Structures are given as C-alpha cells and as structure tokens.
Amino acid sequence: MSPKKLALSLFLPLVLVAGACSDGEDSADDVPTDEETTTEDSAPDEGDGAASEDSGTEAAEAETVAMSPGNAMGTPPTGDTAELNIAEIAAGTADVSTLTRLVIKGGLLPTVRDGGPFTVFAPTNEAFAEIPHDVLRDLSANQPELADVLTLHVLAGEYTAEDLASLDGSTVDTVQGGKLAVSVEGDVITVGGATVIAPDVFASNGVVHLVDTVITQP
Fold first, then answer.
1. Which residues pair with 41 in a beta bridge?
2. Looking at residue 173, what DSSP letter applies?
3. CA atoms within 13 A on the CB side of 39
4. What is the Cα–Cα distance from 116 to 111, expressed in whole angstroms?
C-alpha cells in the first residue's frame, strides 16, 4: 500500500474519538489513561481539589474538540481533512488518541487548534506504547516537561513529504528550539529518528505526518 493510501486508511475510516472511549486493549494496558492519572492525582489529599478540577477541564476540552464542526462525537473526519484543524484531525483518529490526550494535558490544545501553520510529526499509539509505562506516567504528570517533548514534534510552517525529501542530510528547526535531522532512503523519510509512516494529512492550519517513534532528543 502506498504511503498516501496508508494515510487515508488511517485517518478516514470509522474510528473512536479520543477522550470518548478507550484506545483499545493494546494501548490501554501500556499507557496511563485519563482515569488512572485522575485517580493518582486526586486521591492523596482532601484539599487536592485542583487535580480534580484540572481533570474535568481536560475531559471538557477533549469533548469540545470531538464536537468541533465536521467531527461530531463518535464520528471521525471524513472527506477533505483540509477543512479541519490539526486538533480536530487528531481527535478523530484512533491511532493518535494517546497523543491527543497528552496534548490536552500539556496545555497545547489551543495552540494546535488555533495557531499555525504547523507541521506535526504525530507518534502513533504503538509508538507511545514503546515507552515504559511509569516513564510515560511521570511525563504526563509534568506539564512543562511534557510540553517540551511534544513541541519537539512540531515545526513552524508547512512541510510536505516532498519538502522533507528535498532536505535530505539537513536539519529542521522545531518550535521547541531543537533541530531534527532529516534523512531519506528511497521513499522512506526519517525525521529525528522517527520514520514517517503516513504522510501529508493536510489540515486548515498545517500538515500532519504519522511517525512510528516518539522523538525524545533534538
């Protein structure tokens, strides 16, 4: 299957909206869920009302994204994804539901929804499942560090797969401040050690490329 057809098959089929349901058996056992993080954050102290309030805010934000125009609850993006912003595309794509949840926890939802144009290298749920469960849990509880890791996956401006291929052997600057090396072998594009597995999903405020690895170092 060509990368283009793979991209469409990943983003346009009937899928569960992130935040509305579980990610499935494979990812649910390997990464912290909203329910797990909420329980850990709010259980120790009676006065820890802020944690519960934050969790409620996250849930509300996830539902808001899911209910955005063209993406009713339980219905993924269909047709021309260029009419949807990056947050809406992510919220309607089961394969990146872990990323969507972490973007909300990292306080980056308004940026990917309203800002741009951006190029986002979106790690799949399988990519996040490769990170030890306790490491991912600690990361999700540390908003500054989480935001630092997530913004390492974002470039200012729109870089298509063709643009990236033309940058073979060079680097691109992330909004986090780091530089990611770009390499190309045949039709395979690697950025920061992560391989692009579904390129060029266009949004109203940029472009998304699914990648198979979480980028952790510039």
1. none
2. E
3. 5
4. 8
Q: 69 with 85: CB under 8 angstroms?
A: no
Provide the β-strand partners of residue 139. none
Helix (H) or strand (E) run with residue 2 in it: none
Predicted model pTM: 0.70
pLDDT in tens, the chain (218 residues): 444 444 444 444 333 333 333 343 333 334 454 444 334 444 444 444 444 455 555 444 544 444 343 333 223 344 567 889 999 999 989 999 999 999 999 999 999 999 999 999 999 999 999 999 999 999 999 999 999 999 999 999 999 999 999 999 999 999 999 999 999 999 999 999 999 999 999 999 999 999 999 999 76
The DSSP result for 17-34, as a single string, is PBTTB---HHHHTTS--H
Beta bridge partners of 123: 211
Residue 13 phi/psi, 5-degree rounding, is -75, 175
The one-letter code for the residue type at 60 is A
Strand order of the β-sheet with 188-191 is 154-156, 118-123, 206-211, 194-203, 188-191, 179-185, 171-173
Q: Which two tokens stand for residue 94?
A: 């089961």
Sign of CA dihedral 183, 103, 197, 201: negative
User: Domains in the chain, please, with CATH?
Assistant: 3-211 (2.30.180.10)
